[in-house]
Write a structure and sequence with these properties.
Elements: E1 5-6, E2 15-21, H1 25-33, E3 41-47, E4 54-58, E5 61-65, H2 67-70, E6 73-77
Antiparallel strand pairs: 1-6, 2-3, 2-6, 3-4, 4-5
């Protein structure tokens, strides 16, 4: 397992698996209702010019998330796919 990081630290085109949502109350519920739950694989597909919000691809849809929301999500980065054949 790679080092766990916050979603905000992910780079564009990087994939990761969500391991925890640390938000409570209404914010935690909102994040989970968007499909951001432990075990879900996400890909960062873009960022606004000032790096907020971040665009994510998951479960066949795209959503944007503000950095203050992304700060509550801990992810496990997935290894980049290699184009080489064994």
């Amino acid at each position: 397992m790679a080092e766990l990081i916050g979603l905000r630290q992910m780079k564009i085109n990087q994939q990761a698996r969500i391991v925890a949502v640390q938000a409570q109350g209404d914010l935690g519920r909102r994040i989970r209702e968007m499909g951001l739950i432990p075990g879900t694989v996400i890909t960062v597909i873009g960022r606004a010019p000032l790096r907020d919000p971040v665009a994510l691809r998951l479960l066949d849809f795209t959503l944007t998330l503000r950095n203050n929301e992304a700060d509550h999500i801990i992810v496990d980065p997935l290894a980049a796919a290699s184009g080489a054949l064994s």
